[in-house]
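Tokens as discussed.
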């Protein structure tokens, strides 16, 4: 997504100028710090200073794939059931002979 359309995670009224490469969130100038030629947010910088490896969003990507798979399965099931219900309609309804027989 375009950086100019993003807003700071902390200050929602400000335009984002950088995206933290660790947590992948957008921040304004006040909320990022340059560290080893990267702009990091304060929480990721604190985690690095404490020696804790910051959490990455790999689990989020995995969950996205799972949600997409479940969504596709639900959509397939929905259209399968609709197709089965449409196949239960007698053929004479489709060709209009059902309505002609009602008029006689």
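Sequence:
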């Amino acid at each position: 997504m375009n950086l100019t359309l993003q807003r700071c995670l902390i200050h929602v009224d400000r335009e984002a100028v950088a995206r933290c490469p660790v947590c992948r969130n957008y921040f304004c100038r006040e909320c990022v710090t340059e560290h080893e030629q990267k702009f990091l947010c304060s929480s990721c910088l604190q985690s690095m200073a404490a020696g804790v490896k910051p959490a990455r969003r790999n689990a989020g990507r995995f969950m996205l794939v799972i949600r997409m798979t479940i969504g596709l399965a639900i959509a397939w099931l929905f259209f399968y059931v609709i197709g089965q219900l449409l196949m239960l309609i007698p053929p004479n309804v489709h060709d209009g002979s059902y309505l002609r027989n009602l008029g006689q």
